[in-house]
Amino acid sequence: MIRDYSHYINGEWVAAANGTTFATVDPATEEVIGLVARGTAVDINEAVTAARAAFEGVWWQTKPKERARLLFDLARAIEAAADTLAELETRDSGKPLPLSKKEVLSTARYFEFYAGAADKFYGDSIPLGPDYVDFTLREPMGVTAHIVPWNMPLNMVGRSVAPALAMGNTAVVKPAEQTPLTALKLAELMEQVGLPAGVYNVVTGFGQEAGAPLAEHPDIDSITFTGSVPTGRRIMQAAAKHIKPVVLELGGKSPHIIFADADLETAVVEASKGIFANCGQICSAGSRLVIDGRVKEAFLDKLIQRAQQIRVGPGLESPDMGPLVSREQYERVLNYIRVGQNEGAQLLTGGGRPDHLERGYFVAPTLFDNVSPQATIAQEEIFGPVLSVLTFHDEEEALAIANGVQYGLVAGIFTNDLNRALRLATRIRAGQIYVNEYFAGGEETPFGGYKQSGFGREKGIDALYNYTQVKNVAIRLR
Ligand code: ADP
Description:
The chain is α/β, with parallel strands linked by helices and 478 residues long. It has helices spanning 41-59, 64-80, 82-93, 97-117, 153-166, 181-193, 207-215, 229-241, 264-276, 296-309, 327-342, 376-379, 395-403, 418-427, and strands at 3-5, 7-9, 12-14, 21-26, 31-37, 132-140, 143-147, 170-174, 200-202, 222-226, 246-249, 255-258, 288-292, 346-349, 366-369, 386-392, 407-408, 410-414, 432-435, 450-451, 454-455, 468-476. The radius of gyration is 23 Å and the shape is globular.
């Protein structure tokens, strides 16, 4: 059944101003599952105007403890609707149902976490001596723009919208064109718990047509973007037009460093999770396995075995791994696999569509050994289930390989030597270091990049700084 989906602006469901739509496709079947409003600058302008009015007239005036209550209610509503949201997410993005459910519950957790912070993010008082009273106010930015990617569609909306709303901002969200459905479904829940109209607005559409006019709109106050480096660069240029602050969470080529003294059984499981979870479509995926030459053969034997046991199939059947999100992404990943082979890397397993799947954007878990640190598949983000294995002989070499890319999002270190782990944790240039568990951390822990992985931090208390600005009040006593 093909459904129609509208924008959500000022508490109303509205078609695109020019009446056009685009198709969203189930990547497991390649069938169209929805026709979605195709937004342009006119729709974006409507949404920003609504968000501005709701900010000035309602949301900023709402007591922090009231905002907190509404956001707690929203968290509970998301949990109650978790199965529906998860199924929708799986149809739209392809990810396995259990993973969709996990991401939905994590979305609820973002609203819960930031609801708790709504009335607890204080300013400071600053000592200037007995003749002055000086303090800071933490004020909301105003209208916040959120340009969201397709790899964790609902979760990324929650990650940035929750802290924004908690701090008293309103939001205009532009979901990715591949996966617009759950951001719209979230609007229904916002309505259900009584969030005022205009606080949360969604304009669906393509990057150039809807994303770009949002990023360069003169009446937004901040932009949060997660996506690729080239698009991040465009967003930053657009933001420069009206001097708007940006938070950019861009790509990664994160190293997963395995030392000979690590618990290798655990490390195999973590290495597999680090690259095959969500079909490798995670910015912080551990896409480079950097391993001590002394244990490499034994480790790879186990890893190959594990990769070959991964059940690949349609997300609704709850496999271990679903399809890639789109035909474009499928072609891109296959192209990187060809480049890897042409540049002389050794394909250990995978390398294309699994035999048992005739349609859908499926790629088998793929491992490449003997990848040189300068090879394309060791340098560029693939965003697919493709792991490049690089060998080191001592700690310095491991560090040089880890830092030898343009990215610096996360790094995993596996060792039982705590001194070594901490030495490396301080010297690796990345925003988050995992020791002995890949993807360790949670909604509470700050996340973001060094180098071309971007700047600004999302998640945790740090994210609140993105959605507030500081005003200092200096008073002379007479
Ligand atoms: P990908 O190329 O993998 O689809 P992008 O980084 O281009 O990833 O997309 C992430 C988000 O950015 C999507 O919501 C997309 O529509 C949006 N986007 C793409 N191009 C632009 C642009 N020029 N301005 C604003 N948003 C854009």
